[in-house]
Amino acid sequence: MPQSETTGQPGQEAYSYAYGQAPGGYDTYDTSSGTYGSYPGGGTSDYGQSGLPAQPQPPEPAMPGMGGSMVSADRIVYFDFDSANIRSDSQAIIESNANYLRGNPRIITQLEGHTDERGSREYNIALGERRANAVRQVMSAMGVSPQQIRVVSYGEERPAASGSDEQSYALNRRVEIVY
Fold first, then answer.
1. pLDDT digit string (tens) for 55-109?
2. All structural domains of the chain
3. How confident is the model at residue 116 (pLDDT cuts 50, 70, 90)?
4. DSSP the chain
């Protein structure tokens, strides 16, 4: 059964609460930002030694996707033309996300494969899937549970950049790591 604990200064609204016991601490939900997290042991996660609310961290830079969605730049793996091979400049991005997922085994990620507009729809759906599966294989080799990873391909249907030039094509050849 989940335990609850409100935090905050006397006479003020709560900023977060613990909704369940996890190994080594509590899982938390921050009511002011709508985010989940965890903190070790008990106590509060939102107040430091000064008794004032902790300063929020700045958001990661994001890139617009189709339909107005925003994806953090640190969750995008780019690919060369007509390739599903992981580039060396993408290893750090995959490793960072794999480390996060290993440390948070209840989080499920969706790897969304994308292509540029060149090629048939069927070919691009298959290529996007190969790209997402390539990222999945690397994450699995880094210790991420296969149950945490879902793969989907959108092919050319959700471009990150409009345009028929190499710069736009390069931005569209990607896998987005969504969680």
1. 333 334 444 443 345 568 899 999 999 999 999 999 999 999 999 999 999 999 9
2. 1-56 (no CATH), 62-178 (3.30.1330.60)
3. very high
4. -----B-S-TTS---EEEEEEETTEEEEEETTTTEEEEEESSS-SSB-TTSSBPPPPPPPPEEE-GGG-EEEGGGEEE--TT--PPPGGGHHHHHHHHHHHHH-TT--EEEEEE--S-S-HHHHHHHHHHHHHHHHHHHHHTT--GGGEEEEEEETSS-SS-SSSHHHHHHHSEEEEE-
Tens of pLDDT, residue by residue over 1-13, are 333 333 444 443 3
